[in-house]
UniProtKB/TrEMBL annotation, chains A, B, C:
CDD domains: THZ_kinase (cd01170)
GO molecular function: ATP binding; hydroxyethylthiazole kinase activity; magnesium ion binding
Names of required cofactors: Mg(2+)
Pathway named in the protein's UniProt entry: Cofactor biosynthesis; thiamine diphosphate biosynthesis; 4-methyl-5-(2-phosphoethyl)-thiazole from 5-(2-hydroxyethyl)-4-methylthiazole: step 1/1
Entry annotated with the keyword Nucleotide-binding: yes
HAMAP family cross-referenced by the UniProt entry: Thz_kinase
Keyword field: ATP-binding, Kinase, Magnesium, Metal-binding, Nucleotide-binding, Thiamine biosynthesis, Transferase
Catalytic activity from the UniProt record: 5-(2-hydroxyethyl)-4-methylthiazole + ATP = 4-methyl-5-(2-phosphooxyethyl)-thiazole + ADP + H(+)
Protein name: hydroxyethylthiazole kinase
GO BP field: thiamine biosynthetic process
EC number, UniProt record: 2.7.1.50
Superkingdom of origin: Eukaryota
Amino acid sequence: MDIMANVLLAAGASPAMAHSIAEVEDFVGIASAVLINVGTLSDDWVGGMKLAAKKAVELGKPWVLDPVGCGATPYRTQICAALLRLKPTVVRGNASEILALAGASHTTKGVDSTAAATEALEAGMQIAQEHGCIVAISGAEDLVTDGSRVLRAANGVPMLQQITATGCSVTAVVAAFVSQFPQQPLEAAAHALSYFGLAAELGAADAKGPGSLRVGLLDNLWTMSEQQLLVGAKVHD
Amino acid sequence: MDIMANVLLAAGASPAMAHSIAEVEDFVGIASAVLINVGTLSDDWVGGMKLAAKKAVELGKPWVLDPVGCGATPYRTQICAALLRLKPTVVRGNASEILALAGASHTTKGVDSTAAATEALEAGMQIAQEHGCIVAISGAEDLVTDGSRVLRAANGVPMLQQITATGCSVTAVVAAFVSQFPQQPLEAAAHALSYFGLAAELGAADAKGPGSLRVGLLDNLWTMSEQQLLVGAKVHD
Amino acid sequence: MDIMANVLLAAGASPAMAHSIAEVEDFVGIASAVLINVGTLSDDWVGGMKLAAKKAVELGKPWVLDPVGCGATPYRTQICAALLRLKPTVVRGNASEILALAGASHTTKGVDSTAAATEALEAGMQIAQEHGCIVAISGAEDLVTDGSRVLRAANGVPMLQQITATGCSVTAVVAAFVSQFPQQPLEAAAHALSYFGLAAELGAADAKGPGSLRVGLLDNLWTMSEQQLLVGAKVHD
């Protein structure tokens, strides 16, 4: 939660976190977009997640699903599948998570992917078609699809994997971008991934390890100009 | 929670966090001050909060309320109002939260303030008088009142708003200061705000963005000498 | 949780966090080792902790107990004692926690130790003998015992105490090391403590305070070579 909120603030967004059934719907009412991340699951949070998703759909607001660790346990896979049926605008996961979500027989090792993004492209396209959503698959090169088109976002550095919750954080940035371009969720998601990856590239220049990379990532999310993003973003068909 | 604990440790305090009904009262017994932050609310935590507040009052220990996001949802506003009736020593919030807490009709956008500190001064003074507490209102210039006197604390940098939980963290420092000067909660709260803001100013000198500002803030909370604080603190009537 | 996960990633491990009764056993099934940390206790988490411990024993996987704040409240002490009976491979705590766990009459001030490691050595050896586990006691010099032998690990810097959850994080590294050397838990635990302490020593060279020390710690956990560890680790009988 810590880095997700910091990433959103550094990206210029205004995050608020809530999970109580008593107030999630009200928070959805004042938000521009909703992010549902199943990270540290528990039964009492699941009710809040479902209410938030339903309210977002009801209000016509975009919502983004991060199926963290989908495939790692049957419970987690089942919750993710139930959330998928609630019509997310975008699903962002790594290849293992997307494969598990598509019902492909696949074993996930915790929250890290054991498969390459390309291996999950077919599964991602299938989810996108069936559920009418955008699916973003993180990897060395990220893939984003609406079920027919595929955009590739090729920014980032491998050492991001040594920082916890960078996957969750990039999903939060996807939600922020989609809230600003609700009519173009495919392009918004792809550019969100590139923006995050580019900030990591810029931060990596001065980084000695994952501690200083995290600092540099946050600094560059904040300081990056539109011009830097346009020049540095590697988004292509 | 992460930055709050780090801020307290860097400030020389000794934090412990608990929320279970089964042990909060015992923790209050060994603490010098209690901080209740309603950040990520849930029903099972609210019981712990109320028990902690009551125990602090019973033992004559100062307790500080941070009404995070008060006004954002009816549930949150109601919980904050109930906690306020349990006699906090200090309430620290932004202008939107203080206005909502005072019952002024006011809409909060999540945890960020949409109003200036001065707009909430009257509401803050009213809370202070009615509930016999100190009210601290964060803003470009912080205002601290006991219902009659008003102190202003003018340290800080705008980029603090790009770091999550800095509001929560400064409230934690207020609790630490008030625990050391329980007879002067007005002055203690004002100087806590200036100490935190000054550490941010010193840290900002080397900061490239919110990532490095957070590092510099923690470094300077720890290294700041009493002399530096006396020279740099901008607390005045 | 944030720094624990980052420390494990920087150390080359692959952490996943779970606490729901519905899935902890499945997570234990895919993990190489289990860490149970009682930090922010609540009743619904305790069930998950016990299930995880039992499953680890059943599957013959090492599990490590961090009795955070044991002795601070009766509830906490009782939960820690119950977990100890579930046969951890290693227990890692500070002197106050180990003394409280051994039933010695002792008052803990929150999560910071008020006793030196040597004062708890006898209590630690007693726990190790009774429960057939390794006990690691953190202090200026760390002590690790299997009930008969005692290893000393003498790396680290005092300023680590100004960073939250460094105790919890070093326990996580102990779990990672023990998972790789399950037949030598005594040596694995001692070297885990030295590896962590040495990374802090290397990071302290450039650190201005606890903010930059945390960055340097994570950087050096990642970049440290085997040669650096062999030369710098101060583990001895």
